[in-house]
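Hey, resending since the last one bounced:
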Amino acid sequence: MRHYPEDSPNAVARIVALALLADGAIDPSEVATLNRRGTLSHIGLSDEDFNAVVHALCEDLSVYAHRSAAGHLEIGREALRDVLAEVRHPVLRKHLLHAVLDIAHADGELAGGEAVLIASAAECWGVDLFEAFGVHALPQAEACIGVGTHSPAKSRRAVAAPC
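The structure tokens again:
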């Protein structure tokens, strides 16, 4: 895959483009999220410049990705780490990861490719997602999910089970 200068708008935009494509298609809700957040202006790219980055990514994927049994293009873990490593500044990483999470959440579903991108970015960048975004885990007794029956009287919380 082509290389971009460290922390450059194109390096950041490519990760945004990966987030858009990670579920197999660019959904209108994901584009609306980009627009609502002002992501491209924060990156410092025009729509045309971003489209060029998306096009370049698609070219790179057609050359460097392999096709899964389901027919999806997948990049290897090492190539993904190389792409993620081009963003080095910790604050930029946190903002970018937040944008990726917003894009993944835009259509209300977390696809496998989106989960891989988020987990890889967090691992590569040394970010604890719970700490970075103020997510607080349930106490140990409530954190384990068990099998139970749902009744109207029960809450929608997970059923506690021994860990």
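Residues 9-136 form a domain with the TerB-like fold (CATH 1.10.3680).

Sorry for the duplicate.
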